[in-house]
Amino acid sequence: IINAGGDVIKVTRILASSVKTLVNADRCAVFVADERKKVLVANIEDNMVVKLKYGRGLAGAVAVNRESTLVDNAYEEKNFYPDIDLETSYITQSVMMVPMIVDGVLLAVVQLVNKKSDDAMKTVNFGDDDLMLFKAFTQIAGVTFRNALLYREQQRWAQQNERMAAITAEL
Question: Model-level pTM?
Fold first, then answer.
């Protein structure tokens, strides 16, 4: 993750791939938080952009309460948002989510879906050990993720300043 520099998309992809491998999950989504608008945005593996308001779906609930969650059967969970499954023809069974918080600021909600098993016919749920490992990894990765977000913001300001300088020079 550290070698991804300031590229938020690259950092997000590396984070998702690494944490998926770490806890043997089928899928991972990193919902980037916009604290000002109270919205989460993720590019999920089916090349689909998902936007959720804080409080909507499992990710939105984690954004509001800022607590990790472990769900064994997603469809029995009141906050589960099944529309994504319907659009992608994917079946979510178990879910594990961790808020990525650095210096008190919510940067993202990281979601792992469906723990893999050696036996394809057997459903396996995430456990407390998985959650502990996931939390630790997310906390460490959060600093790099924050730096990538700050770098992106700095790039935007630099571009805006260049445009303003060009306009001023024309005056």
Answer: 0.80
